[in-house]
Amino acid sequence: MHARIIAHRGASADAPENTLAAFSLARERGAHAVELDVQLCGSGEVVVFHDDTLERLTGAVGRVADTPLQTLRLLRVRGETIPTFEEVLAAKDRRPPGLVVEVKAEGTLPPPGLEEKVVALLRRYCPGPPSPPHLVVSSFQPIVLRRLRRLAPSIPRGLLLERRRLALRERLFPPLARPWELHLEAAAATPARIARAHAHGLAVIAWTVNDPAEGARLLASGVSGLITDRPELFAR
User: Fold this and answer.
1) pLDDT in tens, 90-99
2) Is the overall model pTM greater than 0.85, yes or no?
3) Cα dihedral across residues 94, 92, 134, 108: positive or negative
4) Which is catalytic among the residues 2, 8, 134, 183?
């Protein structure tokens, strides 16, 4: 089985992250899937945006959770609009067939209703028994994955783990989250850790990998996919 090449927020090295332009470019460059971030805006719609606040990407002041969609429509990320999750799902011709959907949780919990809205949209736009093909929903927060398991047990779930505080979290979080995959920060994806994950029946996806030599090391160690800002480095 070939490893999945997953474009991190789209082909974000050369296009504005988490925009339709970045997803289109990822498709052109041979990515098998795009990774994107979802959260609720101030008027309750699910939008595709990474940060809690608007400053870094748009120059505006404020929190996404406090900003209604009507206002977000006026902002630009390096010239591109902020899409809703529904717009991304509807634009199948502008993105690769696969999706890795990270559900953002500020602190420890997402706002009420986020998981329900994400699942409803996925069921509408990505139907397929027993689960939509080439789809994973991920989060750093095990409580989010527990909720997703309750709402849609057939949709694959990925637990995000970073190197910081990994020793504790890799023991405690998987039993709580019941993931199908571990999405490990590349620096933490050692051969021994990958082997332990496989022994527990978990695939491993490594993030964020932009160096071909590092990608080759990880693939040789048995990861099932790479999340990268530059999918063209690995897609061929």
Assistant:
1) 998 888 989 9
2) yes
3) positive
4) 8
